[in-house]
């Protein structure tokens, strides 16, 4: 993006607080800033996120929002979801595939009722998962034919594939299961 749009990218270096505050000022000026950070480094800017971002609604794209083996424990993006849940009006998504990332980023940029964040794993997006149906903002990814259902799995983003793989083993043991993937993790869908 920096090569294609050099006038639209600002590298603030290793200064997450400055990145968050700069995004707030840009948002106040009528722009729709997107702040790209490692998920774990968002912790450094939490004060700015809590006090400023909730009021001025930039979008965060958080890379490495998972366990990042070769990068070491300081780069495991495990706390951002909990921290961002405390921000009033925050909407958070964890896209499971590249096509969903494009759609959710577009929705995030169109949102004007609060700040947004997209959590991305370090790993590649992988092949898309085809949903059986969509109910409100939930994708039905699997539903056992046996009734009543014994287990409802609600995995987020890259955990949807392992959840689907687990359904076979559960059904072999006579446990009926449904898997739904929320489009947005927060706010929690009231239809669940």
TrEMBL record:
Keyword flag Transmembrane: no
Keyword tags: Isoprene biosynthesis, Magnesium, Metal-binding, Thiamine biosynthesis, Thiamine pyrophosphate, Transferase
Record's keyword annotation contains Isomerase: no
Pathway membership: Metabolic intermediate biosynthesis; 1-deoxy-D-xylulose 5-phosphate biosynthesis; 1-deoxy-D-xylulose 5-phosphate from D-glyceraldehyde 3-phosphate and pyruvate: step 1/1
GO MF entry, a single one: 1-deoxy-D-xylulose-5-phosphate synthase activity
Family designation: Belongs to the transketolase family. DXPS subfamily.
Name this polypeptide is given: 1-deoxy-D-xylulose-5-phosphate synthase
Organism: Streptomyces formicae
């Amino acid at each position: 993006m920096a090569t294609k749009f050099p006038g639209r990218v600002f590298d603030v270096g290793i200064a997450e607080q400055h990145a968050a505050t700069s995004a707030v000022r840009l948002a106040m000026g009528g722009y729709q800033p997107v702040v790209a950070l490692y998920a774990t480094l968002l912790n450094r800017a939490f004060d700015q996120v809590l006090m400023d971002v909730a009021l001025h609604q930039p979008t965060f794209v958080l890379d490495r929002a998972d366990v990042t083996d070769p990068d070491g424990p300081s780069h495991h993006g495990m706390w951002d979801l909990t921290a961002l849940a405390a921000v009033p009006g925050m909407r958070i998504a964890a896209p499971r595939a590249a096509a969903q990332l494009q759609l959710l980023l577009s929705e995030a940029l169109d949102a004007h009722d609060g700040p947004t964040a997209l959590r991305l794993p370090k790993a590649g997006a992988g092949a898309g998962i085809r949903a059986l149906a969509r109910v409100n903002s939930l994708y039905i990814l699997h539903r056992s034919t046996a009734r009543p259902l014994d287990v409802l799995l609600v995995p987020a983003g890259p955990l949807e594939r392992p959840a689907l793989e687990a359904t076979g083993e559960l059904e072999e043991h006579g446990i009926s299961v449904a898997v739904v993937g929320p489009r947005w993790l927060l706010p929690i869908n009231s239809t669940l």
